[in-house]
Each structure stands twice: as structure tokens, then as C-alpha cells.
Design a protein that fits this description.
Layout lengths: L8 E3 L9 E8 L2 E3 L1 H5 L10 E9 L2 E6 L8 E5 L2 E5 L2 H8 L9 H6 L18 E3 L4 E6 L4 E6 L12 H24 L4 E3 L4 H12 L8 E3 L8 H15 L19 H12 L3
Parallel strand pairs: 11-12
Antiparallel strand pairs: 1-7, 2-3, 2-4, 4-5, 5-9, 6-7, 6-8, 9-10
Length: about 280
């Protein structure tokens, strides 16, 4: 799977060529389903869980759906009867720049100077003429008429107290889902890596790995010890955890197999540039 396989850009002039495609992955019944699995016959159910944009073509209608968090993102440009959209702002800009006048959103650009100290707008983008769609939105496109309808989905979200009966049920379901996902992945590939630091989030992820009953010697548990930021302190905490559970940190000696790409510097740069720019 190459970095551009999960990027798309389409516009109102090329709707006839659009086909059903899953960008990213959907979690269905504790299984991770990607485009390859879909093409191999796995039925798609829009659970909202995962990280995806799903383009489905049925006859003369195209429907574009997002996961609950809108984590892939959809960028939209409209100019009279013309529209174009993509899950990469940079890819969309490349499509538009020779044909339409685009202007830089200076306020958004300035936030990049101090990005580590500010919180950016969830709606602004690098280009004034491009909008970022809300995670609740689903798009329906009528191909013959080149008409796009945007529907707001009501997820009926509400706050649940974590120590309530309903809250504990939600936590249990989340726990068992990820336990099964890790076990499924462990059967399919040896190419499993996880970060472990002194932070709360990474220790939660590690706890799921432990409770999944996996051999931690067959998993690369990474922890940086490069002198930057708080990495040395994090590494000390991670080392204590590794000693307690009896596995080595940064164990890259175990031979990896599977169909996943080698993340070269250029590969990582392209992912950062096309998915991170503007996100």
C-alpha cells in the first residue's frame, strides 16, 4: 500500500470516472477492513469506527461518508457550478492552482510559526477558498446533473459518566474491541510496533497489548532516548515497565514479514506533506 493509495481528489468534471473506494480503514466486528479487503469481497458496514472516507457509487449517485471523528478529513472547493473535493488539501490545491485564483489564509499561515503553543481553528484551511467539512457531514452527488447535496448526520452524542452503568459498558466494549483487533493483527503479521513513554495514552495502549496475551518479544515496543524534550525521562519510565514485564525495548532484531511498506524518509515526508499540511 503506497502513500497515495489512501488519497483522493475528484471534481464535478470527472464524476463519470468515480468508482467505489475505501480510503483508510473501517473496524467491523473487531476486524480492520481496508480497500484490499473490500475488493476481496468483505462487506462494508459504515460503523463510524476507524479512520476513513468511503466513496460509494451506486448507479448515477456517489455518496461520500466519514468516520465518526472525521479523521481523514474532506476539503471542499466551490466556484459557481464547479466543485472539487479531496482528503488532502495539498492534493486539492494541485488540482486547482492552474485554473482558479486561490488566496493564502494569512491568519492560518501565521499559526504555523507557533504551532506548538496555539490551537488552530477546526474550520479554517491554508486557502481562503477551500473549506474543511465538519465530521457530521455526508455528501451525495447526482452524477448526470453534477449536483452535490450535503447532509448533516445526527450521531445523538451525549455525555456519559465513566463510573455509571452505561459508562462502564462503553469502556468494556471499547476494551474488548481493541483486544480483538490486536489479536487479529498479531495473527496476520509480525509487523507490529507500539510506542511506550511516560505518558498516560501510550501506557493505556500498552496495557491493551499486555491484556491481549501477546508475546511482547515479537512486538517492537519503541521508546526514544535521544536527549530531546522529556524523552530521557520517558525512556526511564518505559525501561522500568519493560523490566517488570520481561521484554526488551526497541527490539528490531525480530525479522519482520508482511505486506506493509518500509517507511523511508521520503515515504514519511510525503505522508506528512499531503496529509499533515493543512490538517
Amino acid at each position: 500500500m503506497y502513500w497515495k493509495d489512501n488519497l483522493f481528489v475528484l471534481d464535478s468534471n470527472g464524476l463519470d470516472a468515480v468508482q467505489t473506494h475505501l480510503y483508510g480503514y473501517i473496524i467491523i466486528d473487531s476486524k480492520v477492513i481496508d480497500e484490499e479487503a473490500r475488493q476481496n469481497g468483505h462487506q462494508i458496514s459504515l460503523t463510524g469506527i476507524g479512520s476513513y472516507d468511503y466513496i460509494e457509487r451506486t448507479g448515477d449517485t456517489i455518496t461520500i461518508s466519514q468516520d465518526f471523528l472525521g479523521s481523514q478529513g474532506i476539503y471542499l472547493y466551490r466556484n459557481e457550478d464547479y466543485f472539487a473535493l479531496s482528503n488532502s488539501e495539498l492534493l486539492l490545491i494541485e488540482r486547482l492552482k492552474e485554473r482558479y485564483h486561490l488566496t493564502l489564509n494569512r491568519n492560518y499561515a501565521l499559526h504555523l510559526i507557533s504551532s506548538g503553543h496555539v490551537v488552530k481553528s477546526a474550520e479554517d484551511t491554508m486557502i481562503n477558498e477551500i473549506s474543511f467539512l465538519d465530521r457530521h457531514l455526508q455528501l451525495t452527488i447526482d452524477i448526470p446533473n453534477r449536483d452535490m447535496h450535503i447532509q448533516h448526520l445526527d450521531y445523538k452524542e451525549h455525555t456519559v459518566l465513566p463510573d455509571s452503568k452505561e459508562g462502564l459498558a462503553v469502556l468494556d466494549a471499547w476494551y474488548h474491541r481493541w483486544i480483538h483487533i490486536f489479536r487479529e493483527a498479531y495473527v496476520l503479521t509480525d509487523n507490529i510496533e507500539i510506542d511506550l513513554s511516560g505518558g498516560f495514552d501510550s501506557r493505556i495502549s500498552f496495557a491493551l497489548m499486555v491484556n491481549a496475551g501477546l508475546d511482547l518479544n515479537r512486538i517492537v515496543v519503541r521508546s526514544l532516548n535521544d536527549g530531546l524534550h522529556t524523552h530521557n525521562e520517558d525512556y526511564l519510565i518505559a525501561s522500568q515497565i519493560a523490566d517488570d514485564f520481561g521484554f526488551p525495548l526497541n527490539n528490531y532484531q525480530y525479522e519482520k514479514t508482511g505486506r506493509y511498506p518500509v517507511f523511508t524518509g521520503r515515504y514519511s515526508w510525503n505522508i506528512t506533506l499531503y496529509k499533515g499540511a493543512g490538517a
